[in-house]
Specification:
single chain, mainly alpha
Length: 91
């Protein structure tokens, strides 16, 4: 449950999605793995989507119940973990 609370930070401050986006861009430049690029693109897609939800451009006024996050958060987490697993060198 703590992970969901952590990811909830992006609802309040969507611009913070720039942090993992920048990290995965840097990982892609360093490792050249497709998974790092996929993670960067996933976060790049999430950023304007979450910002539009915060501005209430994509919802009809009732944005408090976010069923979409039941799909988005696990996908972002899965893509991010795969990118880290494949892109970070092991010793």
């Amino acid at each position: 449950m703590a992970l969901v609370n952590f990811l909830g930070v992006f609802i309040q401050w969507p611009w913070l999605a720039l942090v993992p986006l920048a990290c995965f861009i840097a990982l892609d430049l360093r490792s050249r793995t497709a998974s790092a690029l996929a993670a960067a693109l996933a976060w790049l897609g999430y950023l304007p989507y979450e910002y539009a939800m915060k501005m209430r451009w994509l919802c009809s006024g009732e944005c408090n119940i976010r069923v979409d996050l039941l799909l988005l958060y696990p996908l972002l987490l899965l893509v991010s973990l795969i990118a880290l697993w494949r892109g970070v060198p092991r010793r």
